Structures are given as structure tokens and as C-alpha cells.
Amino acid sequence: MIMGKPLLQIFLDSPIMLVLLAASIAALALVIERLIYFTRNRFDPSRGLIEVRTRIRNSGVEDALAWARTLKNPLGRLYVLALENLSLSGDEVSDLLYSTILEERVKFERLLGGLGTLANAATLLGLLGTVTGLIQAFGNIAATGSGGPAVVSGGIAEALLTTAFGLIIGIPTLFCYNYFSKKAADTTMVLESTTDRFMVMLERYKRAAGVGAETKPAPQATPAPAPKPTPQPAPQPAKADGWEF
């Protein structure tokens, strides 16, 4: 009970409160979805790098590739991409990995725009409720010709209630938006730094194992140069009317 009314009746009496309720449900759904995504895709970069280095050194690339395929996170996908393209040059592998990191960042930041929009919209909707409540209060004063508490209390109560409800939605949603945005940026930086270290390790392994080394072809006898044909004057094309290219 709020102001002597059931909570459901308060929402039904105010369209703005209904919109705020829908915004709160949408914001909660987005927060839960992002929490689940980041939880499923978390990883330990230092531990993963040590593990893949140990497997490459002790058991070879195939064992490291089989282990990387069991990882269901961005770091495992980077390891798989690099090890599957081991025969390419270091620059080509780096380009592939950094393009994959950009794709992973897009996944990290997915739905964050909607979360930030809901945070701002909830606060503005609360302000809109304040304005409409005050309009109703002054409308009641104009209709009755008096300004007693019974006349203006309903409009002012609606104004304060929508403002409070909008802030209750907007403030936590804004905190969640900032948290997920910072986490997406930090995770991308961790992936980039781990990729740099992994590429250094991979290049040292390729040099030691001779993977991707180019064999120079045996020198062949230089054929005698063919006689140059006598140059003939090139025919001059006739100029056509109009544009010349």
C-alpha cells in the first residue's frame, strides 16, 4: 500500500509508471543476460598462457590445439586460431588474432547501448512524471479555485512517486552499464596483451622447430636473352568527338 492505494492500482492510474515498470523489467533482463555472458566467457590469461606453452613444449602443437578447443572462452578461440594457422607468417597470424579480438569486443559490448539508454530514460521519465504531476496539481487548483492540501496532494504525490521510481531504476542500471563497459574494455586489453606474449612464444617455437621456413630454390642457368624485336611506331588512334579519357 502506497498513499492508501495498492501498488498495482498506482501503476494502472499513471501511464508513466507503466512505462517505468516496463523499463525496469527490460533493464533487469539485460543485466542478467550480460552477467551470464561474462560469467561463461571469463578466463585466466596467465594460467592459460602457461598451460599452452607447457603443452607445446612437452607434447607438441597438436596436444595444445586439442586442449585449446576445450576452452569455451575468447582466449581459447584465439589459441585455436593461431595454432591452426601456424604455417602462416607472424604478421598474418597477428592480423587474424587482432581481427578476432575486435569481434570479441563487439560481443562484450552487445546490448550495453540499450542498458545505458534505459538508465537515462528512466531518470528522464521520472522527471516527466514530476512535470505531469505538478501540471495536475495546478490544474486542480485552477478548477476548484483554492489551493488546499486536499486539492494539490494527489498531483504532488504522483510527481514525487514517479521521480523516486525513476531514480530507483536509473541509478542501479547506470552502475551496471558502467561496470559492464569497463569490464568489456579491460577484457579486450587483456586479450591484446596475452596475444602479444603468445605471438612472441609462438615465433620462438617456429624458429626452433623450423615451421614455415622457406626453402630457396636451386639456382638455374640463366638463359640467353632473346633478340629484341625492332620497335614499330604505334598507330595513333583517331580522336572521337566528346569526352577524352
Number of helices: 8
- Write down the Rg: 34 Å
Strand share of the residues?
Answer: under 5%
Alpha-beta classification: mainly alpha
Biggest sheet descriptor: none
* Cα shape: rod-shaped
Q: Distance between the terminal alpha carbons, to the nearest Å? A: 82 Å
Order of helices and strands: HHHHHHHH
Membrane topology: Multi-pass membrane protein
Organism: candidate division WOR-3 bacterium
GO cellular component, one term: plasma membrane
Subcellular location: Cell membrane; Membrane
3D structure, described in words:
The chain is 73% helix and 0% strand. It is mainly α. The protein has one domain. The chain is rod-shaped.
Notable characteristics:
rod-shaped; 0% strand; single chain; mainly alpha; 245 residues; transmembrane; MotA/TolQ/ExbB proton channel family protein
Topology:
Layout: H1 7-13, H2 15-40, H3 45-58, H4 61-69, H5 74-84, H6 90-108, H7 112-144, H8 149-209
Summarize this, please?
With 245 residues, the protein is mainly α. The chain has eight helices and no strands.
